[in-house]
Amino acid sequence: MGHGGGGQMSSELVDHLFLPAFADDTLRQLGDSAVLELLGGRIAFSTDTFVVRPLFFPGGSIGELAVNGTVNDLAMSGAQAIFLSAAFILEEGTDVAQVGAVAQRLGEAARQAGVRVVTGDTKVVESGHGDGVYVSTAGLGVVPEGVDVRPDRAEPGDVVIVSGDIGVHGVAIMSVREGLQFGTDIESDTQPLNGLVAEMLAAHRDIHVLRDPTRGGVATSLNEIARASKVGVRLDEGRLPIPEVVSNACAFLGLDPLQVANEGKLLAFVPRSAADLVLEAMRAHPAGLGACVIGEVVEDHPGLVATTTAFGASRVVDLPVGEQLPRIC
């Protein structure tokens, strides 16, 4: 299970098993999607699989996750999603009405994101060999001319922006799955980010890096970018937008909010001179109302992420080792 958590064990599995087996230079970039030359233009191509439990949760369902997750992965290359595929793996005995509800939610999410589901597949596995419904999606999108968003483009002097509160999705899933009460209702932040990214690129074309911090949270995404770009990242702990309910839940569960999954937030690395323009564009969009600067890219400690605490000390923000919250996306 730890190999599916998006942290250090996942990274080792990819680095030592899959990358050598597939031996592809584009794959080795390890972006949220692959940007490919095709017929004189560029497309982005991405695939993802969703195994969340429960299937329906406050703020969304596996149907919304399946669309938004792939649309957002494409957007992290600066691409606008056009087409999706949707493959369903169903466990024998699952209520057909429940499957239909998932399909309806998936279709509604696709229409909201402005993307078409144009192909798909269905498989059924024996009872006890699944968990109701798994969904796998793949997506194609078009990368606008002049856009070059890659995980290895972070540069010293860039500022790090997050589009809003972090850790919300993981805590929402845990609250409903374990029946925990944290003093207030909390809903998943799952939403499409393609519209937000389009507004950001319209404000400033040369955004260096985009990443949606899903499995493994902000900590994993920042570490992956720091290593790909061979730079250091320094965060300001006092600026991190962690809602009180997330902070309290993580303290109760012994989790680091920076390592908890998000499904509707993004990280952006932009030149300092463009930060105000990008922030203004983000805050004018519903998906970026809470956008704020949380850190900067530095030449020190290349490949590592550190945060400055409220007491002026520093601590390393590392990858989670295994699976903190299983089956959350």
UniProtKB/TrEMBL annotation:
Gene3D superfamilies: PurM-like C-terminal domain, PurM-like, N-terminal domain
InterPro entries linked: HypE, PurM-like_C_dom, PurM-like_C_sf, PurM-like_N, PurM-like_N_sf
One family name in Pfam for this protein: AIRS
Chain ranges of the PurM-like C-terminal domain: 155-301
CDD domains: HypE
Superkingdom per UniProt: Bacteria
Domain PurM-like N-terminal per the UniProt entry, residue ranges: 32-143
Family assignment from sequence similarity: Belongs to the HypE family.
Name of the featured protein: Hydrogenase expression/formation protein HypE
Organism: Nocardioides islandensis
